[in-house]
Design goal:
The chain is an alpha+beta fold. Helices cover 44% and strands 35% of the residues. The chain has a four-stranded antiparallel β-sheet.
Length: 75
């Protein structure tokens, strides 16, 4: 089992809340992975678990893209 926690800090807590709200529906159980997302002030916390390294990497890449797209839309 592979797992990791990742923190993303935003300059504005409102932006963090918007990104959290946009991404919350994406969390949950996948085929070989699971993702949880939390909001703490201006920080977004992402926790990933996967059965294998390939799944973990694919899940992490997808979440990084989701967050980047949200940031680009907010700019």
């Amino acid at each position: 089992m592979y797992s990791g926690s990742f923190r993303f800090r935003f300059e504005d807590p409102t932006k963090a809340e918007i990104v959290y709200s946009a991404l919350k529906p994406e969390e949950g159980q996948g085929i070989r992975n699971e993702a949880k997302i939390y909001l703490k002030g201006e920080e977004l916390l992402l926790r990933l678990e996967a059965e294998d390294l390939t799944s973990f990497r694919a899940s992490l890449n997808a979440w990084l893209r989701f967050i980047k797209i949200c940031e680009e839309v907010l700019e």
